[in-house]
Specification:
Length: 341
């Protein structure tokens, strides 16, 4: 047995250690945020185990209910939602929870209340469970100002007010990507230790990319700038090579690839969905937060994504996010369209 290798494994930067190191930079910190993140991490580990067992445990299939978005709920969606609600409430650090699966926000009872609001999609891309494609959990965290009764307006804030965001992807490995507002870090679950280990420190998205990611099945309903941009990806006029198309249809997986390799992820508005398809609070905001923290951009077709002010908890928005230069191109095309009008 290689004892020296085992000893080295105890010197790993786990997510708990990482969060506590960050906390020590703020002497006034009470540790509440670290406790909250610990409970989110626990929820992710639990869902990861459930996803891995799903095919064997008959968790795949429909639970017979339809969620607020009109999507039929998979059993795993329901389970994941319960896991995260329980983990977040039991942390004693949350006051309002907004889940993609629940029509109304959950207000935590006064005795277990804290000062954080968590918005989350417990299992994004769940229609892909049956075929083994990567799926994930997305979350964002707001802080409520001390000394007032929490209301729904505490979560109906622009994304730029978030204090942290992240996602956990359940795929060939279980990867948790997190930003607390000072860069982006990626952790991978080591199943033998049951710990998330820092494997992708300080992620920076390349300034330009060779990949575009969009559902081209919607092309006939796109607006002018989106159609022009995709045309340019396929048939560049400046002599550069054409971009590759990669589209998984699971936002977490598509954004994860974009973050690591560069490029752009698009889910534009179209004639069928004039307000876009992706939800602002728990899909667009957390992913836009991570992109900006990694040096990229996120744009709605009209404005910076993180400046949006949602009117309802399940509002939708178009989104273009990824490498800085790619999003600049999209912005220029939309600006030209406005000038024409």
């Amino acid at each position: 047995m290689d004892h020296s290798a085992d000893a080295h494994r105890t010197d790993l930067m786990t997510i708990t250690r990482f969060v506590l190191n960050e906390q020590s930079k703020y002497p006034e910190s009470r540790g509440d945020f670290s406790i909250l993140l610990n409970h989110i991490v626990l929820g992710c580990k639990f869902v990861c185990t459930a996803v891995n067992k799903a095919g064997l445990a008959k968790l795949i299939g429909l639970a017979g209910e339809t969620n607020v978005q009109g999507e039929e709920q998979k059993k795993l969606d329901v389970l994941s939602n319960e896991v995260f609600i329980k983990a977040l409430v039991s942390s004693g650090r949350t006051c309002i929870l907004v889940s993609e699966e629940d029509e109304e926000a959950t207000f935590v009872e006064r005795s277990r209340r804290g000062r954080y609001c968590v918005v989350f999609d417990p299992l994004d891309g769940s229609s892909n469970i049956d075929c083994g494609v990567s799926i994930g959990t997305i979350f964002g965290i707001y802080m409520v100002k001390d000394g007032h009764e929490p209301t729904i307006d505490d979560v109906l804030q622009p994304g730029k007010n978030m204090i942290a965001a992240g996602y956990c992807m359940y795929g060939s490995s279980c990867t948790l990507v997190l930003s607390t507002g000072t860069g982006v870090n990626g952790f991978t679950l080591d199943p033998s230790l049951g710990e998330f280990i820092l494997t992708h420190p300080d992620i920076k998205i390349p300034k330009k990319g060779k990949i575009y990611s969009v559902n081209e099945g919607n092309a006939k309903n796109w607006d002018g700038p989106t159609a022009k941009y995709v045309e340019k990806c396929k048939f560049p006029t400046d002599g550069s090579p054409a971009k590759s198309l990669r589209y998984i249809g699971s936002m977490v997986a598509d954004v994860h690839r974009t973050l690591l390799y560069g490029g752009i992820f698009l889910y534009p508005a179209d004639k069928k969905s004039p307000n876009g398809k992706l939800r602002v609070l728990y899909e667009v905001f957390p992913m836009s937060f991570l992109m900006e923290q990694a040096g990229g951009q996120a744009f709605t077709g009209k404005q910076r994504a993180l400046d949006l002010l949602p009117a309802k908890i399940h509002d939708r928005s178009p989104i273009f996010l990824g490498s800085y230069d790619e999003v600049e191109e999209i912005k220029a095309l939309y600006a030209a369209e406005v000038k024409k009008a």
